[in-house]
Each structure stands twice: as C-alpha cells, then as structure tokens.
Amino acid sequence: MQYVFPSDFIFGTSTAATQIETAFEHDWQGVKTKDGFVLDRTTDHELRWREDVEIISSLAPNYRMGMMWSKLQRAPLAPLDVETVEHYHQLLDGLQARGVSIMMVLHHFSNPIWFAKLGSWEKVANNIYWIDFAKKVIDEFGQHVSHWNTFNEPNVYASFGWIAGSFPPFKTNPVLAATVIKNMGKAHDEIYDYIKLKFPFQPVGISHNCTIFSAENTVGWFTSTLSDWWFMEWVPDRFKKVDFFGMSYYARISHDPMPITYLETPEKIKKSGVIHDDMWEYHPEGMRTCIDRYWKKYQKPIIITENGICQETDELRQRSISDYAKILHQALQDGIDIRGYFHWSTWDNFEWHLGPTKRFGLYSCDLETKERKARPSAEIFRKLAHFKMIEIPEEIEEFELQL
After folding, report:
1. Which long-range contacts (CB under 8 A, 24 or more apart) does 162-167 make?
2. Mean pLDDT for the chain?
3. What is the β-pairing status of strands 338-344 and 389-391?
4. How many CA atoms lie within 13 A of 246 on its CB side?
5. pTM for this one?
6. pLDDT for 267-292, tens place per residue?
7. What domains are there in the chain, each with its CATH number?
C-alpha cells in the first residue's frame, strides 16, 4: 500500500535549544536529573552545528527549532548579544541554503536566570521582558522563518513547574499554575499581533501537548477527568488567537487513580500487556482522537508539532513512522485540514528532568563523545519527508488487521 501526501504537506524534525546546546545562565542549568546527570553540556550543538545542518536537511525540508533566550539576551530589555546573533544567523543561513524552512519556537520551557529571579511567569508585569525578547527575535530573524510557534506546550510547562514540581521553579501550587497560563496567554496574544503586523503571511500558532487520559477504575475516573479538563480544555482556551493549532502527541496515560506509565509504574505497564516505549503506552490511534477533538472545537488548521518514540533501540520508532503516517493520511482523506507533521527529535537530546538516557532521536547521540549516528528509522522518515509518500508492504498491513 502507498500513502501519498499533498505536495504542500509539511514534514520536518524538531529540537529545543536548551536540550541540545550547552547551558548558559538559564533556570535549567545545574538541574540534576532522574538518571543522575546534570543539565549543563548537552549535545554540543553550538560546536557541531555545521554537521547538524547536514543531518537536519537530509532528514526533512522543514525544521522546528528555538533559540536560547538566556544567551541571546543577557539582561532585562538588553540588546541581543552580537556574537550569539551571528551564530544563529550562520545556522539559519546554512539551513536555508539547503532548502530547509523554519518553524521558530519563541519559548520552550527555559528562562534566563534573571527572568526567573524576577518571578518569571507568575507576575503579569514580567510579560514585558519576554515580549521585548520576542520582538527583537522577530525583527532580527524573521526573514528566515516560515511559521511561528510562540509557546511550546504551556500545559506541560505549568503542570510540571507549578503542580508536579518537577520543572523549575519546582513548585506545587495549582493556583500559581493557572496564573502562569493566563500570563502566557496574554503575552501570546500580543506577540501574535506583532508578528502579523511585521510578517502578515507567516502563520502563527501554539503547540499543546495532547494526551489521552483514561481510567482503569472508578477512582481513576476522577483524576483522569480532572487532568483532561485542565490539560486538554482549560489551558488551550487561553491561546485561541492562532492561525494553526499545534499538537504534540505521544501517548495514552491511564489512571488508577495515579498515572500508569513505564517511567513511574513499569510493572503495571508490563502486566497490562500494552505496547510501550521507555516512557509511555504506545497508542497511535489516540492521535486521531485528539485531531478530531480539536478540529471540531476550533476549526483551525492543525500541525503536529511533535510526535515520536522514547526508545534506546529503534524497532518501535521504525513502526511508529508508518503507523502515524497512516493516521494522518486518513484524517486528510476525511477532510480535516492538517498542514504538517514534525518528528521529535532530530537526534537524541537532554530530556529535561529525566536526563539524556531517554532517547528520542532519529539519530543517536553518544553520551560522552556526542557523535551522531543515523538509526534505521532515519532513512524511513527521510523518504517520507522528502518524497511525501510511504509504502507499507501488504504482509504488514494484513498482520496489523489481524491484530
């Protein structure tokens, strides 16, 4: 079977600056992770960017990326650092020369230390600092950009930073979490207007983490329903001024009443018999469930801004590329306006509070040498991304139908 995508469908890969560049005076620097590493040196992207440009362009004609705010703007309202600006121009020039279009993320979980010390997103008065930074980035780099993603997964950011307490500032205060989201929503609206004034034909959107929250039993119903309301309804409704709805999707998470994941409850996952990667249950059909939900709710074009597999080996990642491609193809056939798909991630990076041993890359990254090496999934995705087509042998289709 051949699954052919429209010629203007966007395929790309994705990274985040904090996860691939060496830390520079941001609020994640020095954070000790669950696997015993410290977030400082990550993948040496700022040193190996020429090699990385070749990897990025070989994999897909689009790239979703961000820049390190703390390195670009080293004090409140300060001009952008000249040397850092030049570095990013070289990177973007290299990508453009190879025909790669850029989706630029303006905030991806990390803040300068100076912003954190001021109270970061807890205070609406601090919005002026990120807005100033974002405007300067738009003015300086806008000519390189095809799409803008203002905030990455604000539902994850606020939930982990102010409810679960596993992201900086490591707080457990749901009221503050809601305040953070409201303030980010106001900042998003202002920057949306600024981008449309400067670059009216560049689409601007948000990226929300979309998860299937299910219940194993009656007690799990309450926690999963509450999580769904906050994560999937209340937070997205603070970011309605968009040209596209960006969705990241990874998993279904069941509750009993606490979340059942391979990270926290590996024995329960194993006992259940579900397919899983090194973090979550593998439930690709949940992507279609989320697509249907938000298409009906907002009637905005959808871009899958992140999707991938956490696995040291590559078998499930290889399978997932065709599984998700089929789901996207069917949604397009059903008349849903889906504009693109970005795979997470281009190469293995530093997985926030979990550390660098959680592997998402189409390319592996050696923990010590930082050498990149293509996994078999890289070639599968490369063909899909550049030729807009994936061919799945009939015996695999038949086997999946039997399952």
Report:
1. 166/353, 167/109, 167/352, 167/353
2. 96
3. unpaired
4. 30
5. 0.97
6. 999 999 999 999 999 999 999 999 99
7. 2-402 (3.20.20.80)
